[in-house]
Amino acid sequence: MMPTGRPFTLVLGGGGARGFAHAGVLRALEREGLLPAGIVGVSMGAVVAATYAHRDDWYRAVLSMEVSAFPGPVETDGADASGLLPTARKVIAHLRVLEKMVMGWGPGTGAREAGLSELRALLRSEELDGGRLPVAVSATDLTSGRRVVMRSGTAVDAVYASAALAGVLPPLEAGDHLLADGAYTDLAPVDVARSLAAGPVIAVDPGQESDAGEIHNGFQAIMRAMEICHRQHAELRFGEADLVLRPRFRRRIDTLDFGARRECVAAGLRAVRAEKRAICGLLTATAPEWLEGGEEAGRGR
């Protein structure tokens, strides 16, 4: 174990269920006495960040979150197989989701109260700025199209707004504003992290590259183009950090695959072990004991 040298701030990016990797990263850092001086969260990163800032038992609380009421990956009944029938099933499954989006806020409309209830259990009635370290979360104002950074106010509302994935959960109504997932405007608010505390910024990117596959029509081209835009934006934003940890997942994990939480936590643990030398170099002048031994799981940068 080593004491923290230079103070540092963490930025926990979005990623849906893959955001449970943040818990693994924080757990690994905590075990080595590396405690952030401030923390910024986006989407699922906001859930982990606020829980970490407000609870001593944050790790147990995050891993025991009740997520059964939330929408899961779209079920397509074998639609990955080739042929006309599986393709038709896939189209029908996605049309059902689209209908819920057009007629309401999406398939997670009924999960809003469950989500708020779970956040209340996690964060109680805490104020965002009432934790053991400074914490900030970001959301997207769908009305103005701008990033909204929250450092104070009710923690539950701030975190819900930051994690309200459009088309899945209803946005948070705040006066004339509709607040939704913060990743739409800023995947990694490094500038916010620098304003919270002095020292370097370490960002965690739980994104996952996907295979382009075969592109045969306009719809596939549009989806691939959107994915490219998203990834390029992510690279630009995360590139502003002093160090980026990128958990490597051992299989494809869907944004809504909350059943994979422990796999994601393990990926976060591996990410810290893989970058321990870089972390040491960033925060201390000499190599500490925690560099000796340990699993190397591939570079995170």
List how many beta strands DSSP finds: 8
Could you describe the largest sheet, including whether it forms a barrel? 8 strands, mixed
Low-confidence stretches: 73-108, 285-301
* Rounded mean pLDDT score: 81
The CATH H-level superfamily of the largest domain is Cytosolic phospholipase A2 catalytic domain
Strand and helix order = EHEHHHHEEHEEHEHEHH
Fold and architecture overview:
- With 301 residues, the protein is an alpha/beta fold.
- It folds into 2 domains: 9-71 and 110-291, Cytosolic phospholipase A2 catalytic domain, CATH 3.40.1090; 74-107.
- The chain is 40% helix and 12% strand.
- The protein contains 10 helices and 8 strands.
- Strands 1, 2, 3, 4, 5, 6, 7 and 8 form an 8-stranded mixed sheet that branches.
- The longest helix has 21 residues, at 218-238.
- 40% of the residues are buried.
Task: Put the structure in a nutshell.
By secondary structure, the chain is α/β, with parallel strands linked by helices. 40% of the residues lie in helices and 12% in strands.
List keywords for this structure.
301 residues, alpha/beta, Cytosolic phospholipase A2 catalytic domain, 10 helices
Task: Record the SSE blueprint.
Elements: E1 9-12, H1 21-31, E2 38-42, H2 44-54, H3 58-63, H4 84-103, H5 112-123, E3 135-141, E4 146-150, H6 155-163, E5 172-174, E6 177-181, H7 190-196, E7 201-204, H8 218-238, E8 243-245, H9 261-274, H10 276-283
Parallel strand pairs: 1-2, 1-7, 2-3, 7-8
Antiparallel strand pairs: 3-4, 3-6, 5-6
Helix pairs in contact: 1-9, 2-6, 5-6
